[in-house]
Design a protein that fits this description.
- It holds the Pfam family MAGE.
- This is Non-structural maintenance of chromosome element 3.
- It comes from Choanephora cucurbitarum.
- Helix 3 (about 40-60) crosses helix 5 and helix 7 crosses helix 11.
- The chain has a domain at about 110-135 and about 160-280: MAGE homology domain, winged helix WH2 motif (Arc Repressor Mutant, subunit A, Orthogonal Bundle), CATH 1.10.10.
- The chain is about 50% helix and about 10% strand.
- By secondary structure, it is mainly alpha-helical.
- The protein has a three-stranded antiparallel β-sheet with strand order 1-3-2. A three-stranded antiparallel β-sheet has the order 4-6-5.
């Protein structure tokens, strides 16, 4: 009986494994399948993924993205560079919610129009657009959130307490710079920060004035320039908004932030916003 059972099993296995005569051997079919793959498209998609990973890695480290680094590390050349960057931008925006934004040169000024000034006192959603680029290409990029303001809430995007603290301090410093004709000297800035108890040589990084400013300078939120003719014991510096701050925080959004702390009607906030622009050195073209 065992012999018959074994025979039946072998027959079943043989039937299962049996295939009719094929015109091509299996190895030939595999070669045909592989040869049908569009390797150029596969390579393009791999490069796109490499660009996306590299950009997100740079953003995580708060490191600017440079064109020459992309070309060097990812071996992107000629016409393929523009095509791959375009596809990577689309994936960054529609999958990860980022815009690949080219940083403006240090000489680029942001001159808001009258419409932009009025818009700054309305809802945050109306002034969340990134500023326009102008002038010569810098070849330096950062990732800027492309999410609508309605999605930029603590319930959806979680941030650490430390990040909120740094953001608040940055907005205050940028506001001071803006209202001081877009630059402020280190002694004046130090006096303002002293009032906020952000002192020199404090015990913690979040309260140490110099460490805070160095952090913002390192991450391109502030630009620090030595003031001429200050080679004495106390060297003075001029602080201005850095390229990353210009990319991530449009002037209209900064003015909206400052007006938010004042009460009053929308008309009063609009009047306050216009005064802020005039204080910053912008001319109201409607007058």
């Amino acid at each position: 009986m065992s012999t018959q059972r074994g025979k039946r099993v072998r027959e079943e296995v043989d039937l299962d494994d049996y295939e009719p005569d094929q015109s091509q051997p299996e190895s030939s079919q595999r070669i045909k399948t592989i040869s049908s793959i569009d390797w150029d498209e596969e390579e393009t998609q791999r490069k796109v993924k490499d660009v996306v990973r590299y950009c997100i890695s740079c953003e995580y480290k708060r490191k600017t993205i440079r064109r020459e680094d992309l070309q060097k590390h990812l071996q992107l050349k000629g016409y393929s560079y523009n095509a791959i960057i375009t596809m990577a931008k689309s994936k960054l925006k529609h999958v990860f919610g980022y815009d690949l934004f080219e940083l403006p040169s240090s000489s680029t000024k942001q001159n808001p129009s009258k419409t932009q000034q009025d818009r700054s006192t309305q809802t945050q959603a109306t002034d969340s657009q990134a500023p326009k680029r102008g002038g010569v290409s810098t070849g330096t990029y950062v990732l800027v959130s492309a999410l609508k303001e309605v999605y930029n809430t603590p319930q959806i995007i979680t941030r650490s307490t430390e990040e909120y603290q740094y953001t608040g301090m940055l907005y205050i410093i940028l506001g001071l710079i803006f209202l001081n004709a877009n630059e402020i000297g280190s002694p004046e800035l130090a006096a303002h920060m002293d009032r906020l108890l952000l002192l020199k040589n404090s015990k913690t990084d979040l309260e140490d004035r110099e460490k805070i400013l160095d952090y913002f300078v390192k991450n391109a939120y502030l630009k620090k320039t030595k003031k001429p003719d200050t080679d004495g014991e106390e060297i003075e510096y001029i602080y201005t908004a850095g390229p990353r701050a210009k990319a991530e925080l449009p002037i209209a959004s900064l003015v909206h932030f400052m007006c938010h702390f004042y009460g009053g009607s929308d008309e009063e906030k609009q009047a306050l916003a216009r005064k802020m622009y005039i204080q910053a050195g912008f001319t109201d073209q409607t007058r």
